[in-house]
Amino acid sequence: MYQLFVGVSPSTIVVQSPYVAQVQLLRDRLEEFPLSTGVEVATIDSFQGREADAVIISMVRSNNLGAVGFLGDSRRMNVAITRARKHVAIICDSSTICHNTFLARLLRHIRYFGRVKHAEPGGSGGYGLNMNPMLPSVS
């Protein structure tokens, strides 16, 4: 969690996921990192109506079919994205979510106004990520 290393207080960071099972997995994993004590992990729906300085959204879905489930619900994703006061980070498999028109446009918006980092399959992420993944155009 890069935010912790640049001085963002853990109590101002929220990690959101649409699925309860992944929320629990993320909570379990964060317990392994003492610096993350105070980071809240919640479902997108349960965090509705609240805000945090930094919001990290895990979109979970990764498949060859481009099936995104209810991540394609633009209203739900709008609620998730707008919970951030200062910074939003979206963790996703761009090759999966780009098949959804709304999510592909969101990725292009982030690429234009923010930054997209691309991790190679099987890679460990972190530093050295490719900064220019190819995103398909949407008509």
Automatic annotation (TrEMBL):
UniProt keywords, alphabetically: ATP-binding, Helicase, Hydrolase, Nucleotide-binding
EC numbers, comma separated: 3.6.4.13
Keyword Kinase attributed: no
DNA2/NAM7 helicase-like C-terminal domain residues: 8-94
Top EC category: hydrolase
Gene3D superfamilies: P-loop containing nucleotide triphosphate hydrolases
One GO MF term attached to the UniProt entry: 5'-3' DNA helicase activity
Key word Nucleotide-binding present: yes
Protein name: RNA helicase
Source taxonomy: Eukaryota, Viridiplantae, Streptophyta, Embryophyta, Tracheophyta
